[in-house]
Amino acid sequence: MAIQWFPGHMNKAKKDVAARLKGIDVVIEMLDARLPASSANPMIKALSRGKPTLKVLNKQDLADPNVTRLWLDWYNAKPGTRALGLDASERSPAQRLVAACRELVPNRGGLEKPIRVMICGIPNVGKSTLINTMTGRKIAKTGNMPGVTKGEQRILLADDVELYDTPGMLWPKIEVEEGGYNLAASGAVGRNAMDEEEVALELIAYLMRHYADALTARYRLDDISVLQDYEVLEMVAKKRGAMFGGGRPNMQKASEIVLTEFRDGVIGRITLERPDEWTAWVKKAKELAAQRAAEKQARIAEYEAKKNKGR
Ligand code: G4P
């Protein structure tokens, strides 16, 4: 089963974001550093096409620093794009954001041509935390400015750099199966939209491939190289006393333990996707979609042929 998660109201959000983007010079897209590609909202990519974009890989304190570096290089190599890593411990994040925005739009700046920036990100990525850190006494009420909704908060990152929040909620759209699991593991997907055991097993399988030492150390496991993911989950259940009467492991409870501990960062600094993996997952997802479309076409053709024969 793939994770299905695409709550409603996207059309309204799309319209609002499109309208908001008109007067914007730079889009800051907040991503979860543990799953940068999966936590991107494809709608933003489509709507902000051509706009200089700053990718902020937030929660870098939870992510694998070596993989964060790979992602930063990957994004920084894209035209019109800058990327930086961030986490909530940074006391003055505005300075680095401002410097990156200035680099992206060198022709703007100064009070005559202030740089207008929109910040967006899927829920739980840490947008409110960042905005709260940056506001302090810098909030300015918007006056009669073209394209700015009355009452909308304008945050001055510098005298000539204005930050606007995205109107409405931007949910992730799951287009790649692995991305769905990563979003679910990170906590960005509602509990009722996923099977926690399935998500925990996917997470364990990834950890076994990339972070076996951290997994082994956290749950005091012996050699796991010959085990299957569900066998590892059973061992976690045993180690943590998540058992039913009769000695049967409580896989649901064990799944919750693994997911919570991953989200809290106590298993280690972990990133669930690398740029090359992501590229391969996208390719696979596209091939699968093309295959499904071809199968559908073939079914329609077969149906039409039968119908015509019967005439
Ligand atoms: P949002 O506006 O994008 O929806 O996200 P928000 O700022 O509410 O942050 C979501 C959760 O992520 C919060 O935890 C917040 O503390 C945490 N968070 C934000 N930035 C960082 C970061 O850089 N590193 C880490 N480790 N965590 C971060 P919460 O458990 O939902 O709430 P609370 O613990 O703050 O009460």
Descriptive report:
The structure is a single chain. By secondary structure, the protein is an alpha/beta fold. It has two domains: 8-165, P-loop containing nucleotide triphosphate hydrolases (Rossmann fold), CATH 3.40.50; 195-264, Conserved Hypothetical Protein Ylqf, Chain: A, domain 2. It has eleven helices and seven strands. It has helices at residues 10-21, 42-47, 65-76, 93-104, 127-135, 177-186, 196-210, 212-218, 229-239, 251-263, 275-309; strands spanning 26-32, 53-58, 81-85, 115-120, 139-141, 153-158, 161-165. A seven-stranded mixed beta sheet has the order 3-2-1-4-7-6-5, sandwiched between helices. Residues 137-151 have low confidence and may be disordered. It is found in: Cytoplasm. GO terms for molecular function: GTP binding; GTPase activity. GTP binds at residues 58-61, 124-129, 168.
Which keywords apply here?
Conserved Hypothetical Protein Ylqf, Chain: A, domain 2; 2 domains; 11 helices; globular; G_CP_dom; P-loop_NTPase; GTP binding; nucleotide-binding; GTP-binding
Annotation, overall tally of beta strands: 7
Strand order of the largest sheet: 3-2-1-4-7-6-5
* Helix coverage percent: 40-55%
CATH homology superfamily name of the largest domain:
P-loop containing nucleotide triphosphate hydrolases
Q: Sum up the overall morphology in one term.
A: globular
Helix/strand-derived category reads alpha/beta
Pfam family, one: MMR_HSR1
Protein name: Ribosome biogenesis GTPase A
Subcellular location: Cytoplasm
GO cellular component, one term: cytoplasm
